[in-house]
């Protein structure tokens, strides 16, 4: 039987027509999906600008479903979850991104950084540390090191904090020698508390060499030397404050006076304190001067001379305390009221957050800032 080529000739146009129709349907569907994805994205962006985060999340989820290969949508969604405090969902989004094989290296680094921030915000410091360590050598290295520094400070891991601060310092990301000196002082305190005074002395001397203009290493070293009975060494250490950090002398005034009496250097210490007081009067300085200079002037006369230079309710209360009023009962009532009024004025105040404390802090308990407490009390600011 002969084959009829007529059907073949008729089949070609039919097949071509069906193929053309199928391609048009695919193109139409693709166009619909491409229109839907940008619409959902821009709708989410609009909600975000209007601070409607719930609606923005729904819109971005829709956009991700329509276009699952777009990494920017995943980043936007993950960041939104983190801002809302939904850290588990943010972690899932960024871990999903990390698992993809089609990400470029910059996108993978960005996802790693976002994942580390998720852990950090969630308070999972151990997982955040691991994630941040993986960013060494990337464009996020500096941010990762700063975040690691914050983690180690919060966990009081001073050894690792010293390591990271050293890397930041050597990479010219600002000066971190002051921070390193504080970390070394913390390590020295821990060594001294455990009975290893030799290690404590060595660490403090290292801190002094690292940051000679920082007052804390000198003060801590002098205190330790005095505790060990090395009063002459302690006195020599405190004398360096005059040259390296003269503004911190009010913090060392009482300690300087005590050590000077122990090693027979009262006159030298008195000359130093009086010179510092002449340049910038201070309550702590005048109290140390009165304690050392017991013969040349009455304490109440020094208080009067201070009041001639500066109005001070604290000093006025000290002067009245030595006055003998006619009625002892009335005197005690007045003195009690003055002492209550002056107590807040004797506090120290953080220059960064305003946190007040009766003692001077090197590391603010309120805002965690370093060296934010002036050496002078509230009344003297």
Task: Write a concise synopsis of the structure shown.
This protein is mainly α and 381 residues long.
Protein described:
With 381 residues, the protein is an all-alpha fold. It has a domain at 201-210 and 217-292: Serine Threonine Protein Phosphatase 5, Tetratricopeptide repeat, CATH 1.25.40. Helices cover 71% and strands 1% of the residues. The chain contains 18 helices and two strands. The protein has a two-stranded antiparallel ribbon. Strand 1 and strand 2 form a beta hairpin. Belongs to the LapB family. This is Lipopolysaccharide assembly protein B. It comes from Polaromonas eurypsychrophila. Residues 24-381 are cytoplasmic.
Oligomer: single chain
Q: Report the order of strands and helices.
A: HHHHHHHHHHHHHHHHHHEE
Helix/strand-derived category reads: mainly alpha
Count of DSSP H/I helices: 18
Tell me the span between the first and last alpha carbons.
115 Å
